[in-house]
Each structure stands twice: as structure tokens, then as C-alpha cells.
Structure of Alpha/beta hydrolase-fold protein:
Amino acid sequence: MKRPVFLTIILLLITHFLSAQQIPPGKVITTYIKAKTLENKAGENPVRRISVYLPPDYENSSKRYPVIYFLHGFFWSDSLLVNNDKINRIFDRAIHLKKIKPVIVVMPDESTVFKGSFYANSKSSGNWSDFTSIELVNFIDSRYRTIPNKDSRGIAGHSMGGNGALRNAILHPETFSSVYALSPGVLDARYFALTETEAYKNTGRIKEVKDLSKPENTGATILYAIARAYNGNSRKPPFFADLPFSFDGENVKVDTEVLKELKDNSVSELPFTHYENLRKLKAIKFDWGKNDEFKHIPVTCRSFSQTLELLKIRHEAEEYIGTHGSEVSRENGRIENSLLPFFNINLKFEE
């Protein structure tokens, strides 16, 4: 390598490093709430941790800020968003590069004993949607300098969190004006169940809740979590849920009522049952990787977009080259270059 070229590369690396060092950092505050909406008999802790990102200028100003509620995925949590994904650095960088004006981001921990709540009201494990869209919002508005109205509130999330973002935006247009879902998972829970029939065989070996923590039971954990969210049964311990399939040897038994309940409680049904709510939302966007490892996601995202198009609901739906998470939280990834600019356009900021 010629010396001038080598020196140029070194200078570029130094410039990049110094530029990164000069990005003003925001602050992540950890707080807790004992949620009345999450009182339950199924063993879930109603005390919830919340990570709140405050923009760099928050402590040195008196102005109010819009809020983005960002929901984590299955097997994940608010602390992993910060400590593993370094999502706060994405917010810092996007604000510094003026991809979004300063904003508060709220990341609630809605992981469960079964690893995920799906942000839905459950008959057995708590009203997670009510917590997300009502109790949590009131809690945040009472403690931080937010702009406390729907025009300045958006909701987003990845995977299970994308599912929850769409669900809660559609159910609560009085709370949120805009929604962005990254690779939303299990939009159609009935379709997911029908494509995973064989996996339900593994649920038969789960006798106690503690068995769900074993690595070989990961698939069964997901199935039980979905059942607990959509088919909760407070009279059926220890799992407090109904499954759509059971097995007698190799013979599968189908519970058609449970399958119907899965369908009825899916996000994919909300455009039909909450059409007027959808029309009240200012902006809707969701995206997904073409090569997502979870094969149901591209299929159900395309189908959901077709449903919205059929109903003449304005929205953006984008398929890109990538997997379930490869493009989401990296530098210049989907959060930085698509999600945050989307909210910069669609949320109302203080003049």
C-alpha cells in the first residue's frame, strides 16, 4: 500500500473516531411502576421496570418533548435494548445528525415468565395493552416534560414489539397518532399456529413452568406465551392458557374454538373490527427483511398490507434485503434511517 493512501485512511479513521466522540449523549433513567393493570393470578410480577431515554438538552432546558414508546421483542427486555443493542446511542446519533429533533423514548420491560406478553390484554396474566397505552402513558406524562397529547406520541417496536406497536396504536388512536413496526411477528396467530403444528408436540413434555427455561423447550415457550396472551384461561394452572392442538401419540386433536380465539385476537383482525380507529391514525408504517428467519413474517406482513390497501387505509409497507434483525439496530440501520425520520415528520414538536 502506498504511503499517501495509508495516511489518508488513518486520517479518515481518526476523523470518524473524533466525530463519534463529539456526539452529545442523552441520559437513560431507570424507574419502576407497580401497575394496577397487571394484577393477575398467573404469577406475573406487576412491578415493571422502565428505561426512559432523555435527549442531550433535556436537563438544560425547560421545553417539552414528544414521546416515542419503543417496545422490545420476545426473549428481550428494555435493559437489553440499552445494554446489548445500545439503542440510546442510535438516538444520540440521530439527534446529532438532525434525523430527528430531540425526543423522549420510553422502553417498558414487558417480558414475562413466558418471555413475552405480546402487549395484549390477557384473561389470565394481566392487561398488558391497558398498561402500555393507558397506565404507562399517564405515569410518564406525570413525571417528565412530555407534550401530553396524541399528536406528540408515537409507538414503535421490533418483532413481538412491532406486533404490540400495531395492536396498541389501532386500539388506542386517542393515545398515539403514529406507529412504526419493525419486522412485526405473529400478526396472524392462527396462521402461525397452523404452520407450527408439529412444534406443539413438544408442549406435552412441559409439566411445570420452570421447564420453560430449558434450552430444548424454546419453541414450546413461544407457543405457550402466545396461548397465554390470546387464549388465557385463569382456571387452568400452571400455564393458565389453552392450546389449539394436543396429541395422542401421532394423532393431532384440534380445538376449533381455541383456533378461532387465536384468529379473533390477532392484529390481522383489527382492521376489520377497528376500522374507524385505523382511520384516526395519522401515519402507519411497517417493514420487514426479505430473508427473515421467521418465515411467517414476510407472508403475514404482505397480507396485512393487502388488507389495509383493500380497506383504503393509507400506510407504508416496505420489504428490504435483510434478516430478522440484521438491519434494525446497526449504525445507519432501520431505526436510525427510517423509523426516527418517520417520527420526525409525523410527531408534533414544541415550536
Notes: The mean pLDDT is 93. The CA atoms of residues 67 and 104 lie 5 Å apart.
